[in-house]
Every structure is written in C-alpha cells, then in structure tokens.
Amino acid sequence: MSAGENAEQSDSQLVRVYASLLARAGETQIEVRLDATRRACELLGDIHQAAPVITVTGTNGKTSTARMIDAIVTAHDLRVGRFTSPHLHSVTERISVDGGPVPAETFVRIHDEIAPVLDLVDAELLAEGRGRLTFFEALTILAFAVFADAPVDVVVTEVGMGGEWDSTNVADAEVCVFTKIGLDHQAFLGDTLTEIATTKAGILNRSLDPSPAPNPVAVIGTQTDEAQEALDAEVERRQILALTEERSFRLLDRTRAVDGQLITVQGIRDVYTDIFLPLHGIHQAHNAAVALVAAEAFLSDEDKPLVLDTVAEGLSHVTSPGRAELVRTGPAVVVDGAHNPDAAHVLAETITEAFDFDYTVMVLAMFADKDVLGVLEELHRSADVFVVSEALDSRALGAHELAEAAREWVDEDSVLETPDLNAALMKAIDLANSSGATSPGIVVTGSLHTVAEARLLLGKEE
C-alpha cells in the first residue's frame, strides 16, 4: 500500500472513531461526576497514575499556559503528554506527545483497544440509570491511555470545565496551576467569582489512596481580589504550599520584540532574564511566568534553579494557534478565540500594543450562550467597522441578532452583516484594502470555532 493510500485509510479510520466519540453526550452536556472516568481508568490498569501530572485550570489562558509548561519541561529532556481542549481542526490536536498532535494511527489504535472497557463502563452506568460516558470523559480516558502507551515522563492536563468534578481530576496532580479566573460557564460553575474559584480549586483534592502526590503545590496567576480570596481560603483549608504571583513570583520586565517579546521573570529559585517569547500581549507574558514557576515547582529542588538557557530554548519554540495569531499579511489578519469579556479585554489591549493598525476591521461570530454585549463592550473601541457573521455550529448566534447587538455600541453604518464567514472575510479584506490606511488590519474573533473556520479558509489549518 502506498503512502497516500495509508494516509487515506488512516483518515477514514479517524473519521470513524471521531464519529463514535461525537455520538456521546457533547461537551456542553456535563456530568458532574468523577467515578465514571475513574472506573474506566482503573479497569485499564490505573492509566491515570502512569506518570506524574501537572494540571492547569482557570478561565482564560489555560491552553497557552499548558503549552508553555510542556515546552519548558520538554527542553529538560523529559517526554511530555499534553491534553488540551478544544481543538481547532482535528481532534488529534487535543492529545499531544513530544510537542505535537498524536498520530491519527495511534489515536485510532488506542481508541479501539480501550473501546471494550468504554462499552463495559457504559453498560454499568446505564444499568444504574445514569448517562453513559460523555464525549469529554471518553476523550480524557483515551488521552491517559495514549500517554501510558507512549509512555511519557509527565502529563500536562488542561481542565475542560471547572475543576472539582472535571474528568481530568481523576489524577492527583503534583502541581496545580490556576490561570486568571473570570465569569464563564455560570450555568455549571456559579454566578460569582467565589463560587467559580472554589469549584476550580477542586483540582487540589486528593482522590487516590495512597496518593502519588499527597502534598500538591498550587501555582496561582494574578487574580481579582474575590477570586484570590476564594483560592487563599481553599489553600489554607488544605494546608498546602501556594506560589502566588506578586507574592512568590512576578513578571519583572517585558519589552516588545519582533514577532514576540522579551520577558524577565522572578521565579521561586532565580531570576530568569531576557527570555524571548514568540507570542504577543502582556497576558502571554504573565502566562509564561506562571508556566515557568510551575516547571520550577515540578523540576527543581530548593537549592537548584532551572538553567536559563534551557528555559529560553523551550519557550522560544512555543506556539499558541488561535491566540492573537497573525495568519496572513497584506492585509494583516489576526485571529483570536476570545469568547468572554475578560478575553475580549485582553485581545483589545493586545491589538493596541502588538499591532500597528491604523484601521481595524473586526470580524465577529459568536455562540448564543456567551456574554455577547460584554464582549462587544470590550471590543468596540478597537474596531473601525464590524463585519458580523454566523459560526458553523448549532450553538451559533444568528448574524442578524449579533449585528443588532453590535449596533448598540457603534453607529449603524459601522456594522455589516454577512451570511457566512467566507463572505465576512472577503468583505473584511475588501474594506481593509480600500480603506486608504497605511496599516490596515483584520481581527477575527468570537470563539475558537470561528477562528478554526477562518484559519481553514485562509489556508492555515496546520
């Protein structure tokens, strides 16, 4: 069989497996439980205990921070398995080994090997009158199985939602990382930052006996006062070590550079100076500081800091697709998955700081269950014109409804409505090219689904 035929067969098998995963309850159909995921992992030989774990929770910045931790730990000659969500183009992106998506052949093989156990647990759940394993639960089990099969030296997991009952929490993480916590998924997590932070602090729980990590370290990025107070209370209740930004470590300096920035971080063991980070925005600099300290907590002892050159080597290779990512020039097109007000605020700051646009076309497509007005409040000052569209998803907010919402913030003539994202991009490019501006730019945002579609249309699906 030729290489092309092998690839075609692999793709068809991946389609089969992905379809079987999608047949399960979707990612918005949450089961507040850990026992189902734990049962499957135990039947598969305690795959959730096969390697030490670093877990990342928060509201924004989780994926970028997880990728940075992966890069730093990998630079220290350890093999890393990373589980993140959602994916942009292929479900295999969610499960990474050696810094890249697991091969489709491996994804399919491991799924088919664990399928009988998934079926067994499904049957047990149904017999108890409960829902069978969800998409995210099954994918979490698959990730742990891939990592055990590889095998890897360390697993970096990104919490899907919350923390306490998220299926990734079946593993007792040695290092528990908290990126900035904001309001999102209130239907599941609560309406206040205190409630949300308390639920996310559930990653500090120990569910294994004996636990491979009885005394976890909490690494906490900059928070609002309310979220910080809730995390402080949870840390104190458990009597564990907390390394908190501005108290235990800090971002000392950052300077804009070509294609990124130079950062200096006061870690817990040393000062790490002039590290090149090929990502834009102060939020990514803070994410890098958190990631560096998480790696310090995992890798180093009290008397030995990390090697600056090794840290710099790791971070120099970091990418974060769909996060303030420049995907085209002439005119410039930046894509960012901001889908809540906090993320939109960060995006607006990053556009101002990192890109010298003198005319900005904002292409926007969002989900109906998001805080649309809150996002528009943050973005409208950065846009000369909005081109609104509709995401290819059942949860999408209609283009006309989104356009009406945008007109509450800007002049009616500054909002253009398009039927789909392809039309939106064509209109945006035409507006940018005909603007007469010296440096026009297009920003595509509203959700990672919007970003994924835009990347595909612009030929950046890798």
TrEMBL record:
UniProt xrefs under Pfam families: Mur_ligase_C, Mur_ligase_M
Molecular-function annotations in GO: ATP binding; dihydrofolate synthase activity; metal ion binding; tetrahydrofolylpolyglutamate synthase activity
Key words, A-Z: ATP-binding, Ligase, Magnesium, Metal-binding, Nucleotide-binding
Domain Mur ligase C-terminal: 322-435
Catalytic activity: (6S)-5,6,7,8-tetrahydrofolyl-(gamma-L-Glu)(n) + L-glutamate + ATP = (6S)-5,6,7,8-tetrahydrofolyl-(gamma-L-Glu)(n+1) + ADP + phosphate + H(+)
GO CC annotations on file: cytoplasm
Top-level EC class: ligase
Keyword flag Amino-acid biosynthesis: no
NCBIfam families per record: folC (TIGR01499)
Family: Belongs to the folylpolyglutamate synthase family.
Protein name: tetrahydrofolate synthase
Organism (species): Brevibacterium aurantiacum
Phylogenetic classification of the source organism: Bacteria, Bacillati, Actinomycetota, Actinomycetes, Micrococcales
